[in-house]
Amino acid sequence: MAWKLTKCELDNPNLLLDESILSLGNGYLGVRGNFEEGYPESFSSIRGTYINAFHDEVEIVYGEKLYGYPVMQQKILNVIDAQSVQIYLDDELFSMFEGEIIHFERSLHMEAGFVERIIHWKSPKGKEVKIHFRRLTSFITRELFAIAINIEPIDGIRQVKIISAVEGDVSNFVDLRDPRVASGHAKRLYVMEARKEEDYSIVKDLTYVTQLEVACVTATDICAEKYSYESQAAESRVEEIYLCEGNRPIEFTKFNVYTDTLRHGIEVVEEARKIQERLEETSFEDLLMEQREYLDRFWLHSDVEIDGDAALQEGIRFNLYHLLQSVGKDPHSNISAKGLSGEGYEGHYFWDTEIFMFPVFLMTNPEIAKNLLLYRYSILDSARARATVLGHKKGALFPWRTINGPESSAFFPAGTAQYHISADIAYSYIQYYLVTKDEAFLKDVGAEVLFETARLWVDTGHMDNGQFKIDCVTGPDEYTCIVNNNYYTNVMAKHNLLWAARVYQQIKENDEMHFDRLTEHLKLTDEEVTEWREAGEKMFLPYNEAYKINAQDDSFLQKARWNLDEIPPYKFPMLLNYHPLALYRYQVCKQADTVLAHFLLEDEQSFETIKNSYDYYEQITTHDSSLSYCIFSIMASKLGYREKAYQYFQETARLDLDNSHGNTKDGLHMANMGGSWLTIVYGFAGLRIKEDGLHLAPALPDEWNSFAFHFQFHGRLIYMRIDKESVSYQLIEGGKVILFHHEEPIELSSEKKVEIRQYEKWH
Fold first, then answer.
1. What phi and psi, each to the nearest 5 degrees, are found at residue 642?
2. Is 593 in contact with 600 (CB distance < 8 Å)?
3. CA distances (Å), 230 to each of 37, 201, 258, 518, in order?
4. DSSP line for 506-545
5. Using CA atoms, how far apart are residues 284 and 290, in angstroms rounded to an integer?
6. Which site among 219, 264, 302, 590 is 20 to 30 Å from 628 CA-CA?
7. Average pLDDT, stretch 440-451?
């Protein structure tokens, strides 16, 4: 049953979790897994509907504000609520929290793309009914959120009343106790209109500052033996009321179409009406068929099969499904830290995209990966402007937290100072090129990003005794801030600089006309590119002879070590229990930093150095970030630490399903979900993308009988399976291709499957 996730809880804490776990999305529209009829007033709920990148701005208030601090913060908005459907059996309101629940379950169907809720209920007065709710957000018509309800009266019911509502007066969730969740500015939408017009309920809202409009145009339909109908509109709300006579089955559907000014222009209502008109002859069953066809294609390219642990199989499919639901599929959007499942981190896009989620789509659905790169390209001018504010004469500094381009992080030591995001983005462009060999995209889009990020590093760093050094930055470890020569930052900048120089030369030699246009546009010269190359070649990479490791930065190893075993469990995560300065004074890491650099650019150091670094930093890493476990698992696989690799993977695969970080209610951990896939494909299968091709070094965990997955490379679709006896590679689509298996080249063709027996299990 790994394709179906079933939940039966009715207590408030678990219902809050299930709102995230059973959320639906399609990359444009996301709806949390709320009950249509709502909860009792005593229950807390985060009732939410979100449109990717649809946001407002709020002023950032500082007690002490210095030059260059961001002044406005973007915030994803909870938009018009079209979930609401109330059902009355005679005079009794259906509620899961009154009467008797004879049977209840609700399930997320990951292979079919919908959520259902099945209830057999007896009211306090003894009236019995079966109700079947189904809902989906369409992967084909991205604006559509649809609900279907089948009501089967069983005993003692003379009349069923259905009240369907669309509510424009909505607010965002706030939590004053948690900095990872918004702490204010809950109300950010005006209701512009709420009316019933012909066959549609129409509600339109306007954001306070950004002046973006969102509309919801709803069409309802009913199949009942005998019914009456009326509607009513108030200032912010439209209701449709169906009164069904008799003790007969009822089928009710509700098609909600959302449009916004980012994608649909200023006529949001008219555009939504057009979509509704196209859907007039479409049934809910038709939508289910479309969902299934779309997901069949998705799973063909993306599924990971695990034989040996049903819980982990469920976990990895759950993670992949939610990544698909949350990833933006248009130039306006990306994939936020919580996707479209909740409001944690206010809908902001981080470096999480490039390092933890982008690789999933790169290797399974390159077109989605390409769109993520196009989004970053669309905010390149904002990155240039941000670099200027921070005193740089040239270059692009991408924002640490953003929705539409400007920096939205008010805490610069662990935000703006993380300059490495510009190298992370450059790294993803390079990875895309190596996997797809898309020369046109590299010339038209990628080159400009590589060049502008390379400019940033030359302007940020300086030569010192023949070495290029970068001062006053923060690496991925947010418990160590504003340091000189963070290893991760420096090695990623080196990669960025050398590739920028290489791409410059490549375009110069192969496309003179494009080269002239590009260099004229950027005012770029050979002399400047020589600076990039020199800075990259002379980049200082901290190394400690005593420990034979790469030091995290110039001063890290001079600090006292914090004995993590002495910290009581309730003091984690440390960022919620210790002042930042207390953390900065110790050798304590929130997450993988130098270890992450060794994963991304393993050829920069010897195996011995990588092993020593792993052993050292593992002892002082808290894993307070959900981004950490997967990297330690991947590198444990590389180093042959079999038990550790598997233990860390177990932490990633079901992090949200088991709520192991305690905040899944605020939204799912998207980067960790990507990381769980990385742990299998880059960890257990040992995949690495290198200039000479694709390298794999597979090894099967002892706990499994086999695992298998598909991946794409150079336009080919390849199926790989690892069991206790052998590794097999099968070319599914495309022409011949050469891969490297434990450094030995193998040729794949459509004629035969390559099977390798007695493979080396672990390094």
1. -65, -50
2. no
3. 19, 12, 23, 62
4. HHHHH-HHHHHHHHHHHT--HHHHHHHHHHHHTB----BT
5. 10
6. 302
7. 98
Tell me the β-bridge partners of 100.
122
Q: Judging by beta carbons within 10 Å of its beta carbon (0-12, 13-18, 19+), is residue 684 exposed, middle or buried?
A: buried
Q: Is 328 helix (H, G, I), strand (E, B) or coil?
A: coil
The residue type of 520 is E
**636 phi/psi in degrees, rounded to 5:** -65, -40
- Residue 369 near residue 357 (C-beta atoms within 8 A): no
Q: Cα–Cα distance between 458 and 445 in angstroms, integer?
A: 21
The percent of residues above 70 in pLDDT, for the chain, comes to 98
Q: Judge whether residue 759 has pLDDT over 80.
A: no
d(Cα 442, Cα 438) in Å, to the nearest integer?
6
372 in Cβ contact with 361 (< 8 Å)? yes
Q: Which residue has the tokens 């292979």?
A: 111
Query: Is the omega angle on the peptide bond into residue 573 within 30 degrees of 0, that is, cis?
Result: yes
For residue 306, the one-letter residue type is: I
DSSP-derived secondary structure letter, 349: B
- Which CATH architecture does the domain made up of 4-276 adopt? Distorted Sandwich (2.70)
Residue ranges covered by each domain of the chain = 4-276
Question: What DSSP state is assigned to residue 576?
Answer: G
In angstroms, the CA 105 to CA 69 distance is: 49
CA distance 532 to 493: 10
- Give the whole-angstrom CA distance, residue 566 versus residue 549: 26
Rounded CA separation 457/468 (Å): 10
What's the distance, CA 497 to chain centroid?
Answer: 28
Compute the half-sphere exposure of residue 626: CA atoms within 13 Å on the CB side of its CA.
27
The sheet that has 737-741: what strands, in order across it? 688-690, 693-696, 737-741, 744-748
Could you please report the per-residue DSSP string of 131-180? Answer: EEEEEEE-SSSTTEEEEEEEEEEEES-SEEEEEEEEE--------TT-TT
- What whole-number distance in Å separates Cα of residue 71 and Cα of residue 321? 36
Catalytic residues: 478
Instruction: Give the closest residue to 634 by CA, choosing from 600, 670, 590, 603.
Output: 600
| Residue 481 contacts residue 414 (beta carbons within 8 Å) | yes
Instruction: Note the pLDDT tens digit of each residue in 26-40.
Output: 999 999 999 999 999
Residue 62 CB: number of other CB atoms within 10 A?
A: 11
Length of the chain, please?
763
**Predicted confidence (pLDDT) per residue in 728-747, tens digit:** 999 999 999 999 999 999 99
Kindly indicate the confidence band of residue 119, based on its pLDDT and cuts at 50, 70 and 90. very high
- Tell me the pLDDT band of 2, cut-offs 50, 70 and 90: confident
Largest CA distance in the chain: 90
The whole-number pLDDT of residue 185 equals 72
User: How does residue 1 score in pLDDT terms, banded at 50, 70 and 90?
Assistant: low
The rounded distance, in Å, linking the Cα atoms of 85 and 725 is: 55
CB 49 within 8 A of CB 83: yes
Per the CB < 8 A criterion, the answer to whether 97 and 39 are in contact is yes
Rounded CA separation 442/381 (Å): 18
- Cα 137 from Cα 714, distance rounded (Å): 32
Q: Count the neighbouring beta carbons within 10 Å of the beta carbon of residue 757.
A: 8
